[in-house]
Specification:
- Helix 3 runs parallel beside helix 4 and helix 9 runs antiparallel to helix 10.
- It is globular, with a radius of gyration of 23 Å.
- Strands 1, 12, 13, 14, 15, 16, 18, 19, 20 and 21 form a 10-stranded mixed β-sheet that branches. The protein has a 9-stranded mixed β-sheet with strand order 2-9-7-6-3-4-5-10-11, sandwiched between helices. A two-stranded parallel sheet has the order 8-17.
- The longest helix has 32 residues.
- Strand 15, helix 14 and strand 16 form a beta-alpha-beta unit.
- The protein has 2 domains: 224 residues, Endonuclease Chain A (Endonuclease, Chain A, 2-Layer Sandwich), CATH 3.30.870; 206 residues, Endonuclease, Chain A (2-Layer Sandwich).
- It is of the alpha+beta class.
- The relative contact order is 0.14.
- It is built from 17 helices and 21 strands.
Length: 513
């Protein structure tokens, strides 16, 4: 069967074909992915501006340094902010930077915008909101805290579902941390575990004003349709904005769709004009003119050899860009290409599973062993979630075996004493290549929640630069080194025993975690 036929209904509106003539200055290997710019803005940067981080401690130290040196803007989007000492130190860094900014100029140019999820950020008496209130009270003109509330949690459902369980309906799951023109993309939240012993992925895009502007606008757009935290710990919507759970759901979602798509489309138009000016202008002397423009704005920029594509998924608002691009990448992966795909929560959508099992590329899928699952040892019903993931994994492995695909599709489990596993994304190695030319990094887990319930964002990084490809390859190798290959005997181990009630309940609730 043809996978393209299966995808046709989904991909019909924005057909991923290159309509522009091939650019002689664009490397051929990178050019094969430039169909993505038909859907989202394409940002060309130098690979020297990209740094791949490897550890939680490195991520935490970078956050603090970036906060302390920020002059114009700090924009942070996360699921939540934790309440421990390490998180308090981050808040103290923000306070110190805001204070210095005020003292230096009398009226600070620095603006801080924080976007979190309402339900997760409000959990417990001491929570993300109470952590941020002192900042809001002391710097009301400079600090904005937005709390996204899913429009799907409303009415009787909102009244009946208790705390923690209400987070299963839908969340703000985007993780972006930007400071002036430096952007960190990650799957990590702002919590002590993610700063110490919870393995994730992190990439720093340095001196990238266009990308920083895009994510500032994106976080601002979601912030505009979110509840605004007030100095007395109450929340209210911006004037004239439809309420997410008290107002009309359709009207709210239409407004949110329009705001987010305006950000995507306006950035796409800007980047297309920039691309046309840079690469396709046939006017004599245009190269000299662009050099003079670059010199006037602070020096010549290196020739782009790396392209960044932001992929947004917000199904509640009818935005499915990340899903379309991911499905197309999986569909188009050629024979002998290798895809390394990792997720902390192995619960692939049926579409992703069908593509992995029905296409030609070689797959190495890294997932969490039960002991490094974030829910391992949790109290109550949540404590059974690792067993549910084992059951889902076993079902998928059985299907791989039934189709005699064990050589082509390999499962590997991350295991590391004293650590948990939260890394997500993929690396694509073209046929015959020992290095990846594309990676996806950000918040999505490739599961039902990521595709259908939550607000997600990641970037596709495409590069022709060997040094950056080697950075990405080392990142992949480092993660997979801590893993063992899954076989039939894996599920015979005592810690893989799944109780009957978990097997019965998992199909009913797998779309919620």
């Amino acid at each position: 069967r043809s996978s393209w036929l299966l995808l046709a209904p989904l991909l019909t509106p924005p057909v991923p074909v290159i309509t522009a003539p091939p650019c002689s200055l664009c490397p051929e290997g990178a050019h094969r992915f430039q169909w993505i710019r038909n859907l989202v803005p394409e940002f060309g940067i130098s690979s020297s501006h990209v740094k791949v981080l490897s550890s939680p401690a490195e991520f935490y130290e970078l956050l603090k340094v970036q906060i302390k040196t920020a002059k114009q803007r700090v924009v942070m989007a996360s699921l939540y902010l934790g309440t421990g000492l390490l998180e308090q130190e981050l808040v103290d860094c923000l306070e110190e930077t805001l204070e210095k900014s005020l003292q230096a100029t009398g009226s600070s140019d620095l603006r801080v915008s924080i976007l979190l999820d309402y339900t997760r950020g409000s959990r417990g008496r001491k929570n993300s909101r109470t952590m941020l209130l002192p900042l809001l009270q002391r710097f009301p003109e400079q600090v904005r805290v937005s709390l996204f509330h899913t429009p799907n949690l409303r009415g009787l459902l909102r009244l009946l579902i208790p705390e923690r369980f209400n987070e299963t309906i839908g969340l703000q799951h985007i993780k972006v941390y930007l400071f002036d023109d430096n952007v960190i993309l990650s799957g990590a939240n702002l919590s002590d575990l993610y700063f110490t012993n919870r393995q994730d992925r992190y990439v720093l895009l340095q001196d990238s004003p266009e990308i920083a502007d895009f994510f500032t606008e994106l976080v601002g757009a979601i912030g505009d349709v979110s509840l605004q935290l007030q100095r007395d710990d109450t929340v209210q919507m911006m004037e004239g904005m439809v309420h997410p759970y008290q107002g009309d759901k359709t009207a709210y979602c239409e407004i949110a769709n329009r705001r987010v798509m305006e950000v995507i489309n306006s950035a796409r138009t800007r980047q297309e004009l920039l691309h046309a000016k840079t690469f396709h202008s046939s006017q004599e002397g245009s190269s000299l003119l662009s050099q003079q423009d670059s010199q006037a704005s602070g020096g010549l920029r290196p020739e782009p050899d790396t392209w960044i594509y932001p992929l947004i998924q917000m199904k509640p608002f009818g935005i499915q860009i990340d899903e379309m691009v991911t499905e197309t990448l999986l569909t188009e992966a050629e024979r002998d290409a290798r895809i390394y795909l990792t997720t902390g929560y192995f619960n692939l959508t049926q579409a992703y599973m069908d593509l992995i099992l029905g296409t030609r590329a070689e797959y190495h899928i890294l997932l969490a062993s039960p002991e490094v699952n974030g829910f391992f040892g949790a109290k109550g019903v949540a404590g059974a979630i690792p067993s549910a993931y084992v059951y889902i994994e076993h079902q998928f492995y059985s299907e791989v075996c039934c189709l005699h695909q064990q050589e082509r599709v390999q499962l590997q489990e991350y295991s590391r004493a004293g650590w948990t596993f939260h890394a997500k994304g993929l690396w694509l190695y073209l046929a015959g290549s020992d290095l990846p030319c594309l990676t996806l990094i950000g918040s999505p887990n490739f599961g039902y929640r990521s595709v259908h319930r939550d607000l997600e964002a990641q970037v596709a990084i495409v590069t022709e630069n060997k040094a950056l490809q080697q950075q990405l390859h080392r990142e992949q190798e480092q993660l997979y080194l801590c893993s063992g290959v899954v076989s039939s005997s894996t599920f015979e181990q005592p810690n893989r025993y799944v109780k009957l009630w978990v097997k019965l309940v998992t199909p009913l609730i797998k779309n919620f975690f």
